[in-house]
From TrEMBL:
It comes from Sphingobium cyanobacteriorum. Residues 27-128 form the YdhG-like domain. It comes from the Bacteria. This is DUF1801 domain-containing protein.
Length: 138
């Protein structure tokens, strides 16, 4: 999530205006649903991080190398091809019952919310928040 800290800075941009430009329409609707879900689960308001990540909460990280910065605690990006979730602290077994998805390092990719079990997705988000709270206390 914090690979390019300069690209991940929280901005003052209007999240609603950003979502209004998302295409296709289904991705925009899914983005609004995810935004509401993450806000409810995190207790944090949405903010735009960089040009296209909707993040919730913030944390300051410092690696053993000395590199440090700030990033959102959890977040997602409603990209044209799929929704990208930025979550941490999850294990292989956590994804078994999710439904159609793919994963990369620190990212979860979902083409359509309708294609996954939303209760499982919520559980993933809650587990990621707990991991962030344990690793980087507020």
């Amino acid at each position: 999530m914090a690979k390019d800290a300069h690209k991940m800075a929280e901005t003052a941009a209007d999240v609603e205006a950003f979502l209004a430009r998302v295409e296709p329409a289904e991705r925009q609707a899914d983005g609004r649903d995810v935004m509401a879900m993450m806000a409810r689960l995190s207790g944090e308001p949405p903010a735009l991080w960089g040009p296209s990540i909707i993040g919730f909460g913030r944390y300051h990280y410092r690696y053993d190398s000395g590199r440090e910065g700030e990033s959102c605690r959890i977040g997602f990006s409603p990209r044209k091809a799929e929704l990208v979730f930025y979550l941490a602290g999850l294990e292989e077994a956590d994804f078994v019952a999710l439904g159609k998805h793919r994963r990369g390092k620190g990212c979860l990719y979902i083409k359509r919310l309708a294609g996954v079990d939303r209760a499982v997705l919520e559980a993933l988000i809650v587990k990621s928040i707990a991991h962030m709270d344990a690793t980087w206390p507020r």
